[in-house]
């Protein structure tokens, strides 16, 4: 790259890019005694992220269809379901019926990841694929043409409130390049440890959807948490 090109290069987080970025609060960190109010508090977000954990694929159990259905009744936001469960194809229909708008499955969770992605699309939902921080990116490469969302896990899945793994930034950049080279319009989502401190770097690396749990559902309420994230992206 020439020096001239450098000086002409736009700010990596241009205002256009900032407008495009979607925020997806993870309800795993919300107060479940007030799920309806919490869903209202994030009404200004773009998607609501719903983390389903089975205690087998990840070392934690969260919740399943009944909570998803309750969130559906309480909100008009698109519900973005992240399945951290073994053999997710067993339950895709149920999560679709309970109100999911998009369903994301892990490459490590089934030997038939491509079939799972096809099934999600056949159900008329946005299909997402994701991988753990220790899984080589090549594992998702054959799927890029057939998904609507690629999710980069920036923590080891299982718990909210963990620290962002810095090496995730390079993984986001690589996936950005692969998606662009393929002319794919899939969303590039990032999940785990996203906060006002690193949100801008994550978007500069190429993310289009930020998931945030503990950074949104803080002591001063989800509205304020969302606002802090938006400010950080300005
Ligand atoms: C982790 C989940 C995340 C989690 C994010 O297994 O997939 O969606 O809720 O929480 P924070 O933003 O607190 O890292
Ligand atoms: Zn998640």
UniProtKB/TrEMBL annotation:
It is an enzyme of class 5 (isomerase). The active site is at residues 51, 191. One of its GO terms (molecular function) is D-ribulose-phosphate 3-epimerase activity. The keyword rRNA-binding does not apply. InterPro entries: Aldolase_TIM (IPR013785), Ribul_P_3_epim (IPR026019), Ribul_P_3_epim-like (IPR000056), RibuloseP-bd_barrel (IPR011060). The keyword Metal-binding applies. It catalyses: D-ribulose 5-phosphate = D-xylulose 5-phosphate. Its cofactor is Co(2+); Zn(2+); Mn(2+); a divalent metal cation. Keywords: Carbohydrate metabolism, Isomerase, Metal-binding. A divalent metal cation binds at residues 49, 51, 82, 191. Signal peptide: none annotated. Pathway: Carbohydrate degradation. Binds 1 divalent metal cation per subunit. Coiled coil: none annotated. Its EC number is 5.1.3.1. Substrate binds at residues 26, 82, 158-161, 191-193, 213-214. CDD domains: RPE (cd00429). Catalyzes the reversible epimerization of D-ribulose 5-phosphate to D-xylulose 5-phosphate. NCBIfam families: PRK05581.1-4, rpe. Belongs to the ribulose-phosphate 3-epimerase family. This is Ribulose-phosphate 3-epimerase. It comes from Deinococcus arenicola. The lineage of its organism: Bacteria, Thermotogati, Deinococcota, Deinococci, Deinococcales. The gene is rpe.
């Amino acid at each position: 790259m020439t020096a001239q090109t450098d000086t002409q290069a736009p700010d990596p987080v241009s205002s256009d890019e900032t407008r495009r970025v979607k925020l997806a609060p993870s309800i795993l960190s919300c107060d479940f005694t007030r799920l309806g109010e919490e869903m209202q508090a994030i009404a200004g977000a773009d998607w609501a992220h719903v983390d389903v954990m089975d205690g087998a694929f990840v070392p934690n159990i969260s919740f399943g269809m009944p909570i998803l259905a309750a969130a559906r009744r309480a909100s008009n936001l698109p519900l973005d379901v992240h399945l951290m469960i073994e053999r997710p194809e067993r339950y895709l229909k149920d999560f679709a019926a309970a109100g999911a708008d998009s369903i994301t499955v892990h490459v490590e969770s089934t030997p038939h990841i491509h079939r799972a992605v096809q099934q999600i699309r056949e159900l008329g939902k946005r299909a997402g694929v994701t991988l753990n921080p220790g899984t080589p990116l090549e594992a998702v490469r054959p799927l890029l043409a057939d998904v609507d969302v690629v999710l980069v896990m920036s923590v080891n899945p299982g718990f909210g409130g963990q620290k962002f793994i810095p090496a995730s930034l390079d993984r986001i950049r690589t996936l950005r390049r692969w998606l662009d080279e393929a002319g794919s319009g899939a969303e590039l989502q990032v999940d785990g440890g996203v906060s006002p401190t690193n949100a801008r770097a994550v978007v500069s690396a190429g993310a289009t959807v930020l998931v945030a749990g503990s950074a949104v559902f803080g002591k001063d309420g989800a509205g304020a948490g969302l606002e802090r994230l938006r400010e950080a992206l300005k």
